[in-house]
Design goal:
By secondary structure, the protein is of the alpha/beta class. 45% of the residues lie in helices and 14% in strands. Helix 2 links the parallel strand 2 and strand 3.
Length: 260
């Protein structure tokens, strides 16, 4: 169903982005992954190519317009089109309101919000609609509710939902769908960072906090990268052509009692 399509996955070298790139590649999609760390991109690109995927890695910072323009131009020149954009690049970390340094707060918003905006804006002229076009924005269950000490991350992920809904309506008559995915804890490097930081603040071991976090998920486990990636593939498929402006939770029931 997706064979021959072309996708850009930001933050595609690790974690959920890597999983989505791998899943799209398995469906015959030509995938460009981009990120800030060239070594990680090179390793992931080689691994996915060995698995049979048509993948290219391009170093770039989604908060810099010139970098985004270069990434998009490279893909368009190499493969002639761009059909799918996965705005997965993100940053996290504790940002308590009384912390004297604003840099992490601002960086988290820049990567998630400004990065998603810039990538969407610059990719859209290359999406051929009205036949087809897909934008997927990665939010989080923290885009559904708040967590103390993580105001920047919660703000960014709530903002992604507003961006998704507004852009979906703006592009509805062009045959381009825009949706968001909201995962719970997924066993990635970013999640492990969050567990380490929060456990330290609470004065408990990482193992204790991890067990506590999992206990709060009704299905009593973290989500798997492959589960998130499978939803992304479905949202990119022709079968999902009428799904747009939606924020879909992959949360094990964690948001079921929150109104989200």
């Amino acid at each position: 169903m997706l064979n021959g399509r072309v996708a850009i996955v930001t933050g595609g070298g690790v974690g959920i982005g890597r999983g989505i790139a791998q899943a799209l590649g398995a469906e015959g999609v030509r995938v460009a992954i981009c990120g800030r760390r060239s070594q990680v991109l090179d390793e992931t690109t080689e691994e996915l190519q060995r698995a049979g995927g048509m993948v290219m890695g391009i170093t770039g910072d989604v908060t810099r317009r010139s970098d985004v323009e270069r990434v998009v131009a490279t893909v368009a020149n190499e493969w002639g089109q761009i059909d799918i954009l996965v705005n997965n690049a993100g940053a996290s970390g504790r940002t308590p309101i009384d912390h004297p340094d604003d840099s992490r707060w601002l960086d988290i918003l820049q990567v998630s919000l400004a990065g998603s905006y810039l990538c969407s804006k610059i990719v859209l002229p290359h999406m051929k609609g009205p036949e087809y076009g897909r934008i997927i924005n990665m939010s989080s269950v923290l885009g559904r509710f708040g967590v103390p000490g993580y105001s920047a991350y919660c703000t960014a992920k709530h903002g992604i939902l507003g961006f998704t809904k507004a852009l979906a309506l703006e592009l509805a008559d062009k045959g381009i769908t825009v949706n968001a995915i909201c995962p719970t804890w997924v066993d990635t490097a970013m999640a492990r960072q969050g567990i380490e930081e929060t456990a330290s603040v609470l004065g408990m071991s990482q193992e204790e906090f991890r067990a506590q976090a999992i206990a709060a998920i009704p299905i009593k486990r973290m989500a798997e990268v492959e589960e998130v990636a499978a939803l992304a593939v479905y949202l990119c498929s022709p079968a999902a052509a009428s799904i747009t402006g939606q924020a879909i939770n992959v949360c094990g029931g964690a948001t079921a009692g929150s109104g989200g």
